[in-house]
Write a structure and sequence with these properties.
Layout (H helix, E strand, L loop, with lengths): L7 E12 L2 E7 L2 E3 L3 E5 L6 H8 L7 E6 L2 E2 L5 H6 L2 E4 L11 H9 L13 H4 L3 H10 L15 H13 L5 E5 L7 H14 L4 E6 L2 H4 L5 E6 L2 E6 L1 H5 L2 H7 L6
Parallel strand pairs: 4-9, 4-10, 7-8, 8-9
Antiparallel strand pairs: 1-2, 1-3, 1-5, 5-6, 10-11
Organism: Acidisoma cellulosilyticum
Pfam families: ABC_tran, BCA_ABC_TP_C
Keywords: ATP-binding, Nucleotide-binding, Transport
Amino acid sequence: MNEAVTEAVLETSGLTKRFSGFTAVDNVSLSVKAGSIHALIGPNGAGKTTCFNLLTKFLQPSAGKITYRGDDITHLKPADVARRGMVRSFQISAVFGHMTALENVRIALQRERGASFDFWRSDRRLQRFNDRARALLEDVGLGPFADTMAAELSYGRKRALEIATTLALDPPLLLLDEPTAGMTEQDVARIVDLIKRLRQGRTILMVEHNLSVVAGLSDRITVLTRGRVLAEGNYETVSRDPAVITAYLGSDHA
């Protein structure tokens, strides 16, 4: 883990979201350091996904402020923050099942041309993206599956493919939404190893419900419960916090 990180790349102050009188996120302040892996965790219903959607601008806050690299992004749209280098993957795998793994990554790489994603372009016109696409597939452990249809991949490998397409955008800040949700133990181990390798040269913020998944992975962990920050610190600190233990009682924490 990286202990020598100081500069905050993503920060929130008093972040709040209300839905018809119900407060889903309540006065949350975060500071995600450059080059770190920061986990946002909590039991089911803790407000993690709502907070994540606020950070990535899929929801607008009721109150509070969000800054990215010192710029106020509180009221920007998702596409605007993505162009600035904040790119998220989704909890539910979002790949094109009728395309091969290689074709999925190649489509994402078209962004390098500064044009739209041209699904209809001839295969010959897209060949120049092949080398980079294959390299990204190798990075996520999918090299042998380059020519496999995405629909035929296992759930864990579909998630890895989704991460590869996200990496095609070369984001300095990668946001992962429940990257191990619904996976087998083997797939979980593969994704955890992948996240460790992906940290080189980028910052990672991940939402996760399972404390054991982020053990030994995250530099800093923020624990939410009922929309509020319950505890924050490294794994050793939060895993021994009596309030965190109580919040996770009966769940699948380590």
